[in-house]
């Protein structure tokens, strides 16, 4: 780890991210060092630089590299690297909105749909962020994200996905929302409408009061209620949404316990400048093991070193 990381006078120490601006930043030095590392296939230097700069700095490095070498940095990484390390460093090079659009596209690519990755992004991002991601998605893939999601989903689950993509913030009375959700469960078949409408259009403070009130009224946890009254993708979607309302960090930590490379890298790259410290704390509470230690048991080599640099430290 670069000792300069600890010396920055302008770091955002108030943030909950693990990757912060590098203080002694010289993009021309970095670009030249990367050029040499690509020629020598010195993966250690590539990892050291690209994991110790924040995304904005990586964008500057990429531009400077192209100005100096007349070559594209991403193309250079593809040529010099392979496997999971290549994927991770290329992901770190993507601007944040582009990366989220990329993850959504990958979740819908090929046979079958990765519903939980779609839900992870849709449930943990604000309405404004999702609108920006939709715009970038259209620029990158020349396709409308809403239409793409409609094509990948059906029934009430499709309605939930559309509501999440277009989530708003409507003020209402807590007790009224509790009554609406409770009433929706009283028929032979639960009515998904109120759940979709309420859970995607209120702020988290309001919704936590609603969910607590519903639990007190019905005498069971919301997750048990959902398990009993809904099925299939809709049940999965509502459960993920409820978990993200109650604690996004707890939900993401639970996702990390799979230790599946795609899931792990997706969350770590997406959240390393936002709230990975919270996710780390939730992971430790959930598993009794720090994320830093868990990574060392699962991965190896330069790929492990890159993941550890993003995770940043032991808890």
What does the model show?
This protein folds into 3 domains: 3-93, Annexin (Annexin V, domain 1), CATH 1.10.220.10; 97-246, Annexin V, domain 1 (Orthogonal Bundle), CATH 1.10.220.10; 249-311, Annexin V, domain 1 (Orthogonal Bundle). 70% of the residues lie in helices and 0% in strands. It has 20 helices and no strands. Helix 6 runs antiparallel to helix 7 (115-124). The radius of gyration is 21 Å and the shape is elongated.
Brief rundown of the structure:
This protein folds into 3 domains: 3-93, Annexin V, domain 1 (Orthogonal Bundle); 97-246, Annexin V, domain 1; 249-311, Annexin (Annexin V, domain 1, Orthogonal Bundle), CATH 1.10.220. 70% of the residues lie in helices and 0% in strands.
> What profile does the largest beta sheet have?
none
Alpha carbon gyration radius: 21 Å
Number of strands: 0
Distance between the termini: 16 Å
Relative strand content? under 5%
Following the backbone from N to C, one meets helices and strands in this order, namely: HHHHHHHHHHHHHHHHHHHH
The CATH superfamily of the largest domain is known as Annexin
CATH third-tier fold name of the largest domain: Annexin V, domain 1
> With helices defined by DSSP (H or I, 4 residues minimum), what is the helix count?
20
Share of helical residues = 55-70%
User: What structural class results from the helix and strand content?
Assistant: mainly alpha
Unreliable residue runs:
1-14
In the CATH hierarchy, what is the architecture of the largest domain at level 2? Orthogonal Bundle
Number of domains: 3
């Amino acid at each position: 780890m670069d000792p300069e990381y600890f010396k920055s006078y302008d770091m955002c120490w108030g943030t909950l991210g693990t990757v912060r601006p590098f203080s002694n930043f010289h993009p021309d030095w970095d670009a030249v060092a990367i050029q040499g590392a690509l020629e020598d296939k010195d993966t250690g230097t590539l990892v050291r630089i690209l994991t110790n700069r924040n995304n904005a700095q990586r964008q500057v490095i990429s531009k400077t590299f192209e100005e100096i070498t007349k070559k594209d940095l991403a193309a250079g990484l593809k040529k010099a690297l392979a496997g999971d390390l290549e994927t991770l460093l290329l992901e770190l090079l993507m601007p944040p909105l582009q990366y989220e659009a990329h993850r959504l596209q990958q979740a819908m690519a090929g046979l079958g749909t990765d519903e939980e990755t779609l839900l992870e992004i849709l449930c943990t991002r604000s309405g404004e962020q999702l609108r920006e991601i939709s715009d970038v998605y259209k620029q990158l893939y020349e396709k409308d994200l809403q239409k793409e999601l409609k094509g990948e989903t059906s029934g009430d689950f499709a309605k939930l996905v559309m509501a999440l993509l277009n989530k708003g913030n409507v003020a209402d009375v807590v007790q009224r929302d509790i009554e609406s959700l409770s009433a929706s469960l009283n028929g032979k078949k639960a009515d998904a409408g109120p759940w979709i409408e309420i859970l995607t259009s209120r702020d988290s403070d309001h919704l936590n009061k609603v969910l607590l009130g519903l639990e007190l009224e019905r005498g069971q946890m919301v997750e048990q209620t959902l398990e009993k009254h809904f099925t299939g993708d809709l049940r999965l979607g509502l459960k993920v949404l409820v978990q993200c309302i109650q604690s996004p960090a707890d939900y993401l930590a639970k996702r990390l316990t799979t230790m599946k490379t795609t899931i792990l890298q997706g969350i770590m790259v997406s959240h390393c400048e936002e709230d990975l410290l919270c996710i780390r704390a939730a992971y430790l509470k959930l598993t009794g093991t720090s994320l830093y230690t868990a990574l060392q048991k699962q991965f190896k080599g330069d790929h492990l070193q890159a993941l550890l640099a993003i995770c940043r430290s032991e808890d």
